[in-house]
Amino acid sequence: MIDYTMEVTMEAIEALNSMCQMSGNENGGILLGSEINEKYYRINRVSEPCMLIDRSSKCGCIRNANKANEIIKREFESSNHTRFYLGEWHTHPEDNPTPSTVDISSCIIRSIPTQ
Ligand SMILES: [Zn+2]
C-alpha cells in the first residue's frame, strides 16, 4: 500500500465554502496544489467554476474541458511551475448532500486516527 498525505489550506476550504449551494444546478471546478515532499501534497487553490452551464442539472454537470485546461495552464505558469491539477470539486445543491456512487468510486478516502 502506498501512503500519501494531502493537506488542504484554510484559504482553499474558504473558497470551497463560498461556492456552497442550496439550490440550482450543480457547479464545479478544479482543485490545484503543490508537492510539498515525496507523497505529500497540499491543495492550495480552488478554481472558479468551469462547467458547461447548458449541460448542468440538479444532479450532474459536465466540465468545460477548454476552460479547465486554461485554468490548469494559468495556475501552472503563475506559480513558477509548482501548482498543478490535483482533482475536482462540484456542488450538490441540496439540504443534505450525499455523494453519488460515481463520487465514491472516484475517490479513495482513508481516515487517519488521531492520537
Ligand atoms: Zn457528486
Q: Helices and strands: which structural class?
A: alpha+beta
CATH class: Alpha Beta
Strand segment count? 4
Number of domains: 1
The third-level CATH topology is Cytidine Deaminase, domain 2
Shape: globular
Q: Which molecules are bound besides the chains?
A: zinc ion
Order the strands across the largest sheet as they lie in space: 1-3-2-4
- Largest sheet composition: 4 strands, mixed
Topology:
Layout lengths: L4 E4 L1 H9 L9 E10 L2 E7 L18 H14 L5 E7 L10 H5 L10
This protein binds zinc ion.
The site of zinc ion (ZN) has 5 residues, from loops.
Overall description:
The protein has three helices and four strands. It is of the alpha+beta class and 115 residues long. It has a single domain (5-105), classed as Cytidine Deaminase, domain 2, CATH 3.40.140. The radius of gyration is 15 Å and the shape is globular. The model has no long low-confidence stretch (mean pLDDT 89). Residues 90, 92, 99-100, 103 line the site of zinc ion.
